[in-house]
Amino acid sequence: MIRVPAVTDMLVKLYDLPQDLPPLLAGITVRRALASEQHQIVTWVSRVFSQGWAEEAAVAFDRRPVACWVARENQSPAGFCVYDATARGMLGPIGVAEHCQRQGVGRHLVVKSLQDMADQGYAYAVVGWAGPDVFFAHTVGAIPIPDSSPGMYRDRMPPLNTPS
């Protein structure tokens, strides 16, 4: 029996991205993050998702242009997507606030980020440790990369224990 990993890297053709996205709900916008928003976004990512994702989001702010796209609901963060953080050519992490999921926010974040990569000359992108893979396959035609779990993360240092 072949064991399929729970998460795997996925490959996306950037020259074949969707061109039309359905409109977002009123009050939700998606745009490139501003450098001046780094602290607010990184703090939000740490609080809502994880410190590891926050550290990757912080790296995206060191890129030029800033490699972080953010969704806002009114004036509050609702989601984020970064690229070129873990490694060049990689998309992720991506996160959407639970109350905004299944409303097209993740789709907009992913497509805008990948279009940005294509505009910078990338032909392909790797979605690192994609989950759920069905979302990426449906949204941007991503395909699993065989034998890519744990991939580049195989020698990753374990999280530090936090004092109690």
H/E series:
EEHHEEEHEHE
Question: What structural class is derived from the secondary structure elements?
Answer: alpha+beta
Whole-number average pLDDT? 89
Give the uncertain stretches in residue-range form: 1-5
How far the N terminus sits from the C terminus, by CA atoms, comes to: 43 Å
List the helices and strands and how they pair.
Elements: E1 8-13, E2 28-32, H1 38-48, H2 51-60, E3 68-73, E4 76-83, E5 90-96, H3 105-119, E6 124-130, H4 133-140, E7 143-144
Parallel strand pairs: 5-6
Antiparallel strand pairs: 1-6, 1-7, 2-3, 3-4, 4-5
Helix pairs in contact: 1-2
Keyword list:
seven-stranded mixed β-sheet, 27% helix, 4 helices, 164 residues, globular, 7 strands, alpha+beta, Aminopeptidase
Characterize the structure shown.
Helix 1 (38-48) packs antiparallel against helix 2. The protein has four helices and seven strands, in the order ββααβββαβαβ. Helices cover 27% and strands 25% of the residues. A hairpin with a 6-residue loop joins strand 4 (76-83) and strand 5. Strands 2-3-4-5-6-1-7 form a seven-stranded mixed sheet, sandwiched between helices. The longest helix is centred in the C-terminal third of the chain and has 15 residues, at 105-119. Residues 1-5 have low confidence and may be disordered.
